[in-house]
Amino acid sequence: MDTPEDNTAVIRMKRDFDSFLSNTSRQGLPRFDLDRSLDMSLNQSSQSALSIKVLLDREKEGRLKDAEMAASKSKILQLQSEVDHMRTSCKRAKIEMDLNVGNMKGDREREEEMMKELKAKLKYMSDKEKNLKEELEACRGELKQKNAEFEAKMLAQQKEKVQKQQMLQQLRDSSKTKIFELQNDLMKCQTETQQAKVEVEQTSEQLQLQLKRSADLSLELKELEEYRNTAQQAEHKIKMLEQQVSRMSEDAIMTQAMKSQIISLPALEKEVRKLREENEYLRGTNENNLLLKEQAESMKKKLERLEQRTEEFAKMEVENTEMKHRLEKWESVDSDGVRIQNPTQMSQRIAHLQEMNAVLLEKQGELQSSFHLEEENGRCLQYKYEILQKQHDQDKIRSQHLMEQLKRFQRKLLLFSKERDGYKQIIDSYESELTSNIGSLTTSRVQHLEGVIDGYRKQAETLEATISKLTQKLTDYKMQGSHKDTSSSSSLSTDGNGVVPRSHMDNTDQKIILQLRERIETLEKQLEKTEEEKYILESRMEQRHLQGDFDPTKTKVLHFSMNPVALAQAKKKEIITELTEENEKLKHRLKLLEESEGKVDDLTMQVEQKMEEPCSSKEIDGLKEQLSREETKNKRLMEVFKKTSQEFREVCYQLTGYKIDILSSNQYKLTSMYAESPEDFFLFQQSSSGEVQMLGTDFSNTLEEAIELYLAKQDSIPAFLSSITLNLFSRQTMMIG
């Protein structure tokens, strides 16, 4: 360290370090020329160990500082990029906000114009409502006045009625007094007539005395006769006068009564006229009162309608504002970053989403149909498997039967072996009995019998080995039958030679042959059945193989790792989940925009928070309950309406005698309960003005007289219908009679 070489080395090292720092500051990358400095230091100061340690420490510090500088620079670059990104996003947000503010201002101006128009309409409606209320109040005042006038008139009429009743009572009393006076006059006349009668009697007595006195004189008699005649005439005149007096008295009574009536007639006629006029006036006032009442009711109904319209108008205003807010929200930026500026873009977006939904629905339908087909195929295979299982069970039962038959054949084999032993004994006896001439025949016979025995043995072996070789068994049985035939023929030939009588052997052989033939026929039938069943089973197995069925013991199924069906299903599920998530996000966004009235700072963050939050199931349950209640109410109302309408139709049918059916909006079909056929009906049509007109039918064409009388002349549809009901009723009663 004390040598000058060491000092120069240190100075050089400092220079190199300064140059390194300057190079790093210029280039922006950490570089340090360690090799050169080390070479210089090693060449110049190889002896100083302390300087090397210092250099190493400084090198480490420099590397750490360089690493820190690089990290800080990278952080600065990241922050600068983030700041630039934020600036661009802020600029975009400002531009979008300016556009939104402009749109909002335009919408606000439109809304203000709409509000002004609505306010003007509301003022007009309110003024109209006030005018209507004033008119209604005026009508009510007029109604009250007219009611008061009507009540006053009614009171006046009641007073006049009381007065007239009093006048009538007075007239009755006066007529009674007059009748009493006339009766008194009549009594006086009667007394006068009685006095006249008494006087006449007195005169007649006097005349009789005079006649007695003048009996002697004829002149006096003549005079007396004349007096008598005159007296008779006088009596007759008196009677006539009495009758005239009675008639005159009656005429006087009648004349007096008629005079009183004639005197009172004009007054009564005047009173009757007045009463009629008052009655007509009262009827007119009553009709006016009814008209006014109807007008008042119509005005009330109009007022209620106007109130309903005002309420509906208020609701429509609220709905209009809500729809405007929704339109603004829909016109705002979508989640995909696309701004919907007009309804066409919105409709295009909706159409695109609907197309996507339709494609997904089609794919879902195809997958569901394929799934249903697979399920049906599985069911068919299950059914076929059950059928095959049943057939397998039947085959097992048949195999058991065949095993039993095999046992029977084994028993028969034992019998055949016993027969063979018997045959051997017979052959031995034959050998002992027969001469040398027939030795060849016996040997051939023995060989033949041994061949038959070998055939039986082979047959037993085939039956024990397997049941499937039925064809071989049949051939064996056929061969056995042929051998038996040959043996029987040979036995017959020997019997024909007359050497040995063998009738017993022939009978047993024939029985065995018959049994074997029967057995062969049964086995052939069983073989045909088994072949048919085998063919059916093979065809079914081929069909199942074609349908994709397999035997898991023989075949191994390999599934693709990238199965296209599974991939399509997974893709479809992902698309459905994405669409549902987008739908929920849009719903939450709409709700947030509606709640905050378009003033949201971090809309996406709030939407994500809403998506993370669990949905309120209570509201959904409440809405579902309300929906179910409303549906039940609607159903009940519809049922009640149907019931009441049906009852009303039946009552109208029973009362009027016509069944009314609505063919279209303004056409009505009327069929009478007394109609002779279902084709006898009328058609009526109601015009826009409310008039009802009859349309032509085959039945109406037969009733021209009634149509001319009641419709053309009198213009009365009810009279026409009632006349036709009476006509049809009379026809039916005549037919019953």
From TrEMBL:
Protein's GO biological process: attachment of mitotic spindle microtubules to kinetochore; cell division; mitotic spindle assembly checkpoint signaling
GO cellular component: kinetochore; mitotic spindle; nuclear envelope
InterPro entries hit by this protein: Mad1
Signal sequence region: none
Predominant place of localization: nucleus
Alphabetical UniProt keywords: Cell cycle, Cell division, Coiled coil, Mitosis, Nucleus
Coiled coil spans: 101-165, 214-319, 513-540, 565-640
Region (Disordered): 478-504
Places the protein is found: Nucleus
Family matches, as PANTHER family: MITOTIC SPINDLE ASSEMBLY CHECKPOINT PROTEIN MAD1, MITOTIC SPINDLE ASSEMBLY CHECKPOINT PROTEIN MAD1 MITOTIC ARREST DEFICIENT-LIKE PROTEIN 1
Stated family: Belongs to the MAD1 family.
Name used for this protein in its record: Mitotic spindle assembly checkpoint protein MAD1
Upper lineage: Eukaryota, Metazoa, Spiralia, Lophotrochozoa, Mollusca
